[in-house]
Structure to design on (482 residues):
């Protein structure tokens, strides 16, 4: 599994000005904490407006913009702010970056006070007047009046642009954070190649600082995703088909919130912990001890030699997994660990981490194996149709089952980072119960899908086929669990 740990942070200034700045900072501090409990906030109202059977809580409205289209969106907002504040477009861009391109907020604040005090509040980080030239071409200065020779400005800008800096280029004076507008920087850059790089970095920073836009994280993909309301929801690029979370641009991770998944991925990338974990691709049958390799996504294993049914994760008898509570997904805390030595606590912490990591990683591997099963199912459906053994509609239930299995297993995979960071208590017990129900339904469907894939050629309704009840009731219960 690839883990993208690159920072997606914008260069934009995170501070804000005005009388309500402290309140807004407090709201921002609490936002991540509320993500976990309010992940599906508003879903109930959406279900009321639509059919409960057809409603998908992960549905999220977004559009994919090309480079040209996104430039047009940015230019319209720049022109609006520049005209209202009576500043140049290059200065308007810096103001928009500072306010994360919330045009209405800028105009409201500008209208609620006199223009001069409003612009003076920005003067520490955003120039509100055009840079000036002192003593002809020998000295140049920003509105902060820190003057330097043109050659020094050129070297300063060239070095920073080569380092990949765009909007973040600021005054050379020590402790001066005043940003340099693009029409001041561009004439100082030698050569068109460096100027083109600077323009690309500016575009990147403009998009990353925009509260409604996100760059597609796909390799060399120029597309931009635009939404009305920025939330941690699933989006997919129309060009490269990359699926990711709009808020953090990591792989989509419902029901885990962005802050938790960042902590989890950092933990998984820490060699000091994962070095102690040996990812075994083979295990011994708990009954006859023959070595078994997992070649499918289902965790319900059957020994080819002694036909013993057992769980791949805990090696327990599979019959115990058919009970109401699917114990395999629940970590059993040691209640006396706080009274034991630091070494014992460290071992217990590692044991707990490996418990959740092994299940997280196992579901990821199952997804990859089940993707191969899905491909085989597609090929065999095509073969059946070509041999006049039914139509595409007749075999659509197999296609639907495999697609739903992938979606639900992906969700189940991301329940484990969520559960790892949850505090022990009634809320976690309820979550683990729901997690166990989903786990049981998924393994049941996975078992049936894999055996439906291994039917005897030309035999309709043969051994391994999903029954009529499996096709309807079984898939319905899985949808509800998911």
């Amino acid at each position: 599994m690839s883990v993208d740990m690159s920072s997606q942070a914008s260069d934009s200034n995170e501070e804000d000005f005005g009388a309500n700045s402290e309140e807004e900072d407090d709201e921002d501090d609490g936002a991540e904490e509320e993500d976990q409990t309010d992940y599906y906030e508003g879903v109930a109202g959406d279900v009321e407006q639509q059919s409960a059977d057809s409603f998908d809580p992960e549905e999220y409205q977004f559009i994919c913009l090309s480079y040209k289209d996104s430039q047009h969106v940015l230019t319209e907002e720049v022109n609006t702010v520049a005209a209202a504040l009576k500043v140049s477009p290059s200065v308007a861009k810096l103001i928009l970056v500072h306010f994360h391109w919330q045009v209405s907020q800028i105009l409201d604040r500008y209208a609620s006070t006199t223009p001069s005090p409003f612009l003076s509040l920005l003067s520490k980080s955003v120039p509100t007047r055009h840079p000036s030239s002192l003593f002809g071409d020998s000295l140049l200065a920003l509105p902060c009046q820190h003057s330097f020779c043109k050659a020094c400005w050129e070297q300063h800008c060239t070095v920073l642009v080569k380092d990949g800096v765009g909007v973040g280029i600021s005054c050379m004076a020590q402790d001066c954070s005043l940003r340099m507008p693009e029409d001041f920087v561009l004439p100082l850059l030698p050569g068109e190649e460096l100027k083109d790089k600077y323009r690309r970095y500016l575009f990147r920073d403009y998009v990353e600082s925009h509260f409604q836009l996100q760059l597609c994280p796909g390799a060399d993909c120029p597309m931009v995703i635009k939404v009305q309301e920025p939330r941690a929801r699933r989006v997919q690029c129309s060009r490269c088909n990359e699926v990711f979370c709009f808020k953090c641009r990591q792989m989509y991770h419902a029901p885990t919130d962005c802050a938790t998944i960042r902590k989890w991925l950092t933990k998984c990338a820490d060699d000091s912990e994962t070095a102690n974990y040996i990812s075994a691709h083979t295990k011994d049958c708990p009954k006859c001890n023959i070595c078994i390799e997992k070649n499918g996504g289902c965790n319900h294993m059957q020994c080819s030699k002694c036909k013993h049914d057992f769980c791949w994760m805990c090696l327990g008898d599979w019959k115990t997994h058919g009970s109401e509570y699917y114990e395999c997904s629940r970590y059993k805390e040691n209640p006396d660990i706080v009274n034991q030595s630091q070494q014992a606590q460290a071992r217990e912490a590692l044991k707990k981490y490996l418990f959740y990591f092994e299940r997280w990683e196992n579901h990821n591997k199952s997804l990859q194996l089940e993707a191969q099963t899905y491909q085989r199912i597609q090929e065999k459906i095509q073969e059946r149709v070509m041999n006049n053994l039914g139509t595409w509609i007749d075999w659509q239930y197999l296609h639907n089952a495999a697609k739903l299995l992938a979606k639900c297993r992906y969700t189940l995979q991301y329940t484990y980072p969520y559960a790892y960071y949850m505090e022990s208590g009634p809320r976690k017990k309820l979550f683990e119960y729901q997690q166990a129900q989903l786990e049981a339904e998924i393994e049941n469907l996975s078992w049936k899908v894999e055996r439906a894939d291994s039917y005897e050629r030309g035999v309709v309704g043969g051994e391994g086929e999903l029954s009529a009840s499996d096709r309807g009731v079984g898939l319905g219960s899985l949808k509800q669990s998911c």
Notes: The chain has 16 helices and twelve strands. Residues 214 and 225 are 5 Å apart (CA to CA). The longest strand covers residues 62-65.
